[in-house]
Design a protein that fits this description.
Length: about 120
């Protein structure tokens, strides 16, 4: 079976499109920041995270084990939030830049959406 015949976005729900949008936003943020800060070793982790989001989108649109993808996505995104908190150590709202704030809101929203999608397919 050709890949193009397996890729289908026609039957996606609004919640699935929301998840896709959130993944695109956080993925672009991570890739952009990673590329901007290369060759810093920490930048590589941002590029890898962005690549992880891109890979998840490919798997999602191929329809490969979406329920498992949702389930794996929760700790993947959650670990990034925890890692950001440990590295950035924000102590107040003044310590969080606008891009960081947007990304964390997007990531928290993505976790909620992934949990809902997972529960709907269980």
């Amino acid at each position: 079976m050709a890949i193009s015949s397996r890729v289908s976005s026609a039957n996606l729900t609004g919640l699935e499109w929301l998840a896709v949008s959130l993944v695109v936003v956080t993925g672009v943020i991570h890739l952009g920041l990673g590329i901007a800060f290369l060759p810093d070793p920490l930048a590589v982790t941002f590029v890898l995270a962005g690549a992880g989001f891109a890979g998840a989108l490919v798997l999602f649109f191929l329809g490969i084990r979406r329920q498992l993808l949702y389930l794996i996505g929760v700790p993947f995104v959650g670990a990034q939030i925890v890692a950001w908190y440990v590295i950035a150590q924000p102590t107040g709202s003044g310590d969080v830049g606008p891009l960081e704030a947007i990304d964390k809101v997007v990531q928290l929203s993505l976790i909620v959406v992934l949990l809902v999608l997972y529960s709907r397919e269980s």
